[in-house]
Amino acid sequence: MIRYHVKKNSKSRNTLRYLGIFLFIFGAFLLYLFFSGMASRHYIGAVLGALIAMYGAYLFIHTFEEDKYDIDYEFDDTELRIKHRKGETVYTYDQIDDVVPVVPENEMIYCLILIRAGKKKYLLPFTYNKDAYDRIYTHLTARVTVKDLEAEIAEEQSDTDLKTDDRKESK
Fold first, then answer.
1. 84-106: per-residue pLDDT in tens?
2. Is the distance from CB of 136 to CB of 113 less than 8 angstroms?
3. Are the CB atoms for 71 and 83 separated by under 8 Å?
4. Which residue in 22, 41, 159, 169 is a FRET match for 123, CA 20 to 30 A apart?
């Protein structure tokens, strides 16, 4: 079993919350100016105020998502276990759709692995930790690509079976 902990900075999460609150209040103030009559002819300002307020609400709401907090990943032989703030999520390797490596030009500084499972996406950052990246990526690709290869083989076999059936019917 491989365990990996992704630590998120609470200061940046709180900063985004405060920024969201500030933008929401600022946008609401611009809307207040428009609807109170002080800037009644400035429709662009009203639209801009509404957009700013909506973006502030978006920032504030999305700081409470599970990927904004610390996450523990456990890679077993049969499943991926993700422990986050709201509980625990378990994926078998059959449920994982894609594993995408992101390797920059200087891979010793940082590397990323993007895991897609259904509609969820999990991003694993590896800063100055190339060994852990290699170990986890090879572990994931060995288990996820086996599923993809089995699906391709089954598809090819069904195609060849259909072709042989067509030949028999044509004779």
1. 888 888 888 888 888 888 878 77
2. yes
3. yes
4. 22
Residues 6+ apart with CB under 8 A from 16: 59, 60, 63
Question: What does pTM read for this prediction?
Answer: 0.67
Q: Closest by alpha carbon to 72, among 86, 53, 55?
A: 86
DSSP calls for 8-71:
--HHHHHHHHHHHHHHHHHHHHHHHHHHHTTTTT-HHHHHHHHHHHHHHHHHHHHTTSGGGS-E
How many C-alpha atoms does 78 have within 13 Å on its Cβ side?
0
- In this predicted model, what pLDDT tens digit does every residue of 118-170 receive, in sequence order? 888 888 888 888 888 888 888 888 887 766 666 677 777 776 665 665 555 55
